[in-house]
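Retro notes, structure queue

What went well: the backlog is down to a handful. What didn't: a couple of records were mislabeled last round, so from now on we paste the full input next to the output in the thread. Example, using MerR family transcriptional regulator from Microbispora oryzae:
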Amino acid sequence: MPPSLVPGVRSTSSPRCDRIDGVTVYTPGQVAEETGFSLDTLRYYERIGLLRRVRRNAAGQRRFTEDDVSWLGMVRCLRDTGMPIAEMRRFAELVWQDEPNVKDRIAVLERHDRKVEEQIAELRRQQDVIKRKIAYYRGVLAIPDGVTAQDRESAS
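Corresponding output:
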């Protein structure tokens, strides 16, 4: 997440912010710009319970807190690493429960972490194939014009 709305970090451009009950709040547009989520996605995440009920100002307009933005940073991480929405919702429910359930949260994240490790391993395997193909094409470029690979092999 860009640093300007991350709690404790301020950008040099410092967006114009309002305050509700002494809490700094951000417009949906500001949050969309900072998180990379579209306005539709922010509304969708709120509707399905992936984002807690967003505060409203006196005019009824949605206003996000720094905690909301920080949570959206976690959602962005989980989404970008392929966690299904249902699993993100499960994690959110655990985070927002009043009872202590840290072990359950760890279990959800560890399960996801294993999947991410598997994805990374598969990407490494695919990257090896790409590197071999690059090496092959570099070898093709090294063959002088008019000389076939077969001619080259017989000369060695």
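Agreed that this is the format going forward. Reviewer comment attached to the example: The first strand starts at residue 18 and ends at 20.
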